[in-house]
Every structure is written in structure tokens, then in C-alpha cells.
Amino acid sequence: MELPSVFIGRSLSAATRRWLKKQPIRFIEHPFIRIQFRKPNVEFLESVKDRAASLVVTSSYAAYWLVRFRRHFGLRTKHEIFCLSEKQRDILLKSRMKIHLAAEPTIPALASLIAEQNHGQPVIYLRGDKALNDLYERLFTFGIQAHELEVYKNTPIEKWINEAFDAYLFFSPTAIENYKASGNFPPPKAQIMAIGENTAMTAWKVFPNAVNVSPDDEELSFVRYSVDRIIKKMNEPIPKKRVIY
């Protein structure tokens, strides 16, 4: 039996790739987004330097940016970081700042954690130029108006994929939009795997295919969930056609 083929719309971390290579599938990675890091907004950072504040990251890119430019925030003891996944936490350990990890790698869990720990200090959300989740809105429902600090930019990469796959993994609405803008369409019977509700909503809008939504926002958890669903689907018995005589 031929192995299931999987298209992954981003470059994976080394740990996720190692795990995936051990699975009974074949896959290719192709990012549709190029990341460009922003220079620090010195004027804004001076206004919060050495002041108590909660710093929030929901992506590895934002975590890397914070580690690189941590010195602009001033005293480590004045700031604490809130993050979504163990991968982000591991990156942020280099900052030597106090880190809070959400109980689950989901935006609702992270928003609740931030609200529980907030005692009036400003919340600074480090994010890209594209909104990939609804954290800002969820914090607002808790009475917290976060300051959004853009620390990286998503630049589209156009590429026509001259191959059909059994399943497609997408990590953001932007990746789906750039995939489609390049003239790509998945085969009608292919499964679409989406990370988070926003990505799933975009997939439902542009593809007629079945869309599966991962309950976890963390990369490896999403890939594990997707591979499990893909293999189960591929192993389902093909229903026999009724023959009417």
C-alpha cells in the first residue's frame, strides 16, 4: 500500500521534523510566508523600561525577537512573560525572565491565565503584522486592553505546487491565502488540517474539502493530531457499491 502523502505549508522545527520522519507517511514542507523581524520601537520601549509589565507571545518568532531584544525592556525583575507552548517557553528561558505557561496550548487558556495574574500592570502583546488569533479580543472581555507591539512581518511567498497530496496542513489563514493566490487547489478528496478556528474558517471559505480543526495550537501537537487523523482516514474500508439487478 502506498504511503499517504502530506503537504505542509510551512518549515517545521527540527524536533517536529524528526518525529514526522518516523511516521508511515511521506511529506514535503513548503512555507508560503517569509518572516522579517522588526527593529525595536525604541520610543515605546523607553516608555515601559524598568516598569512592571506582562509580555505576551503566541509564536516562536515573537519569542526569538524578545530574547534578542530583551535588554530594551530594562530590569528583568519588572517583567513577566506569558506564552502558549513548551517550545516558546524553551526559547524564552534564555531571557532569564519569569515565564508563565498556559495550562493548555490554546488562546482561551492563555487569556485566562493572563487575566488571573493581572493586577493592573500593562499587557504588551508581541505579534506579527497579521492577526493569527483572537487573543486581543479575549483579553478585552476580561477588561484588559493590551498594547499590540508588531515585532515581525509576514511576507507572502508565491509558489505553484505541481503535485497532488492526500492531506494538506495549514498553520495560519495567511498561508492558505498565499497558497490559493499562487494558483493552487487541493484535490477534492484531500483532507485539510487547520490549526485553530481562524485558520479553519479561512479553509472553509476557500476550499470545498473536508476541514479538520486541531484542538491544540502548538506545532508538534498539531502535526501529531493531523497524522493520526490522516492515517485513520486512509485505513477506512472503502464502502462497497450496491449492485441492483
TrEMBL record:
The keyword Lyase applies. SUPFAM superfamilies: HemD-like. Its EC number is 4.2.1.75. GO terms for biological process: tetrapyrrole biosynthetic process. GO terms for molecular function: uroporphyrinogen-III synthase activity. The keyword Protein transport does not apply. It holds the Pfam family HEM4. It comes from the Bacteria. Keywords: Lyase. It comes from Gaoshiqia sediminis. It is an enzyme of class 4 (lyase). Residues 20-203 form the Tetrapyrrole biosynthesis uroporphyrinogen III synthase domain. This is Uroporphyrinogen-III synthase. Gene3D superfamilies: 3.40.50.10090. Signal peptide: none annotated. InterPro entries: 4pyrrol_syn_uPrphyn_synt_sf (IPR036108), 4pyrrol_synth_uPrphyn_synth (IPR003754).
